[in-house]
Amino acid sequence: MHTAFADFIAFSLILSVVWVAYTWLFLQPRVDWRSPKGLLTLLREGVLWNWESICKLFSSAQSLPASSVPYSIYFITFSGFCIYAAHWFIQKRKESDKQPHPLYVKGKLISQSVTCNPNNGEFETMDPSVHTVTDIRNLCYTYGEKPALYHAKQWLSYSTLIRGSEIFADIVERNAHTKAPVCVLGDFSSIKCSAILGLVSIGRSVVFVTQEQQPADILHILEEQHCEVILLKHSRLSQLEEALQCSYCSSLRVVLFTDDDYIDKGEGCSGYLAEESLTQTHNLEVLSLSHVIMSEYADVEPHAVLPTLPLRDAPAVIIYNSNNEPITITHRNIVAAASALALEYAVKDSDVILAEPISVASTLSLFMCAMLCGARFSFTNRIVEICGEVQPTIISASNASYYAIYKELLGLYRAYPVTTFLLRPIRHLLRNTPSFRYVRQCRVSELLGDNLRLCLSFYSFRPLSKAGHTLLMRMIGVPVSIIFGNTETCGICTHSVGNGNRCIRGYVAVPFVCNSLRQSERNTLLIEGSNITECNRMVELDGRRWFDSGISVLFLKDFLIVHKMPSTFCSSMPA
C-alpha cells in the first residue's frame, strides 16, 4: 500500500468514527433508525446538524450546545484532514506532471524505436577523451593515492592498483609467446580486476571461465582460445588439475595463482597437492603472483601514461555463455556501458560501490564505471557482513542477499510493540513517523552502513517481484533500481522507473542512454547500442543490427518500456 494512500485512509477512518459517534449521540434519540427511511433521515439530519454546528462555531460560541468543546476538537480534526487532503492532492498533481526521466524532453522516436540519448546518435562515452580501457587506466593514474579497491580489509589506492596491473601485464608478456587471451578462472576479486585492467590496457584480451564450468568445458575453452597463461586462486588449482586429467592441453604453459582470502583446511591441502601434480605430471610452470612481485618487482614504478592504441573495436573480454558459445566484448562496449551507468546513477568520486558478481558483463561494467569516476569499489559475496566495514553508498546484490536484509528489517517491524495492536492503515501511518524512521535507520545503518543512497538489482532468473521491490524500498528507505538485460551480450539494457506501481501487468522501465530499443514481431525486445556485442542472435532491421534479447515486452511508447512479468513468476522476495 502506498504511504500517502495509507495516510489518507487513516485520516478518513478517524474522521468517519468521530462523525458517526457524534451523529449517533445527538440525533439517534430523535430519529427511528431501524427502517431504511429512518437511516436516510439520520444521514440527512446528520449532515445538516454538522453543517449548522460548524456555522455556529464561527458565529458565536455561546449558541453552541454543551458539546462545544468536544465538537471544536472534532472540527479541528476535520480541518486538519481537509488541509492534508488538499496537500496530498496537490503533490499527486505535481508528481503526475513530472517527466519520469530527465532526458525525455530531448528524446526522439526514431524508426519505431525508443531511446534516451539526447543527441539522437550512438552514445559511446561520457568523456570525449575516454574511448578505450587504456584511456580509463590513464585516467586512474591521475587519481594518485585516492582509495580504489577494498582488499584484505584495507583500501588499495589507485596508484597501487595501477602498479599491480602493470606488473601483472609485464609478467604475462615475459612468459607468453603469443598474443593469445589470458584465462581467468573463478569468481571476481580485487587482484583479478587489477590484472584485467593491466592486460586489456596493453591490447591483450582476457577470457573468463566461471567456477561452475565442468572440467571438460574448461579444457575446451583453454584449447579453443589457445591460452598460454591462466590466473586463478590457489584453492582452484585442484579444479584445473581435474580439467587437465580429461585430456592434454598443448597450449597451456604457465599457471599464476593468487592467495586465498579464506583458507579451508581441506582446500589448502588439496591445493598444495594439485600444485605438485601440475608441476611434475603436466609439466607446467606454477608461479605465486605475490612471490614474483615481491622478489622481482619490489622497486618497479608504473608509467604515468600508456600509449593510446587503436583498440576501440578490439576484443577486451571473452565470455562463454550457457551454450559454451564465445561472446567477445570490445573496449567500445565496456566504455559505453560504464559511461551509461555513471550518467544514470550520478556516480561521483565520493561514492563507494559494493557489488556481488551477478554476471561478468554487468559486474565488469560496474567496476569500470567506478574507475571512470574515481569512486571506490569492492567485491563480496557477503553483503550484510562487510557493509559495516566498507560503508557503501551504492550496493549491487543478488536477490538472496536482499531477502536476507528484508528478513532482518521485518523482524524490526514485528518487534515494534505498538504496531501489533493497531489497524493496518494506522500501522502504515506509524511506520512513517519520525520516531520509527529513526529506529529503522539505526537498524539499516547496522546492516548496510550510514551512507547508503542506492541499491541495484540486476534482473536474473529470479527477479524481484514488484511487490517485493516496493516493500524493499520502503524498508531500506533508499531507491532500489532493477536493471534489465543481464546477459553477457548486453550487461545493461533498461532500468526501472519509480516504485513499479504504475503498471499492474509488468515492469515499467526506460532504456539507458547507450541503448535504443525496438519491439519485434514476437513481442520480444530488440536492443541496439554501443554496449551490444556481436552474437548469433543478431537481426537486421532498417539497415541496423539489433540483438534479440528474448525478453518479453508489452509495449514501447513515449520513451517507456513495459517488461512483461513472467507467467510462472519465481521470486525470492515475497509477493
Task: Explain what you see.
Keywords: ATP-binding, Ligase, Membrane, Nucleotide-binding, Transmembrane, Transmembrane helix. Residues 141-514 form the AMP-dependent synthetase/ligase domain. One of its GO terms (cellular component) is membrane. The chain crosses the membrane at residues 7-27, 71-90. With 575 residues, the protein is α/β, with parallel strands linked by helices. It is built from 17 helices and 22 strands. The chain has 3 domains: 3-97, no CATH class; 158-311, Rossmann fold; 352-564, ANL, N-terminal domain (Rossmann fold, 3-Layer(aba) Sandwich). Strands 1, 11, 12, 13, 14, 15, 16, 17, 18, 19, 20, 21 and 22 form a 13-stranded mixed sheet that branches. Strands 8-7-6-4-5-9-10 form a 7-stranded mixed sheet, with helices on both faces. The chain has a two-stranded antiparallel sheet with strand order 2-3. 39% of the residues are buried. Mean pLDDT is 78; it is low at 97-111 and 567-575.
- Arithmetic mean pLDDT: 78
Low-confidence stretches: 97-111, 567-575
Major pleated sheet: 13 strands, mixed
- Radius of gyration over all CA atoms, rounded: 30 Å
Tell me the count of domains.
3
Number of strands: 22
Quote the beta fraction.
Answer: 15-25%
Q: How many H/I helical runs? A: 17
Ends apart, CA distance between termini:
12 Å
Q: Identify the CATH architecture of the largest domain.
A: 3-Layer(aba) Sandwich
- According to CATH, the homologous superfamily of the largest domain is ANL, N-terminal domain
Cα shape: elongated
For the record, what CATH class of the largest domain applies?
Alpha Beta
Secondary-structure class: alpha/beta
**Helix share bin:** 40-55%
User: What is the CATH fold-level name of the largest domain?
Assistant: Rossmann fold
Protein name: Long-chain-fatty-acid--CoA ligase
Domain AMP-dependent synthetase/ligase: 141-514
Keywords: ATP-binding, Ligase, Membrane, Nucleotide-binding, Transmembrane, Transmembrane helix
Transmembrane segments: 7-27, 71-90
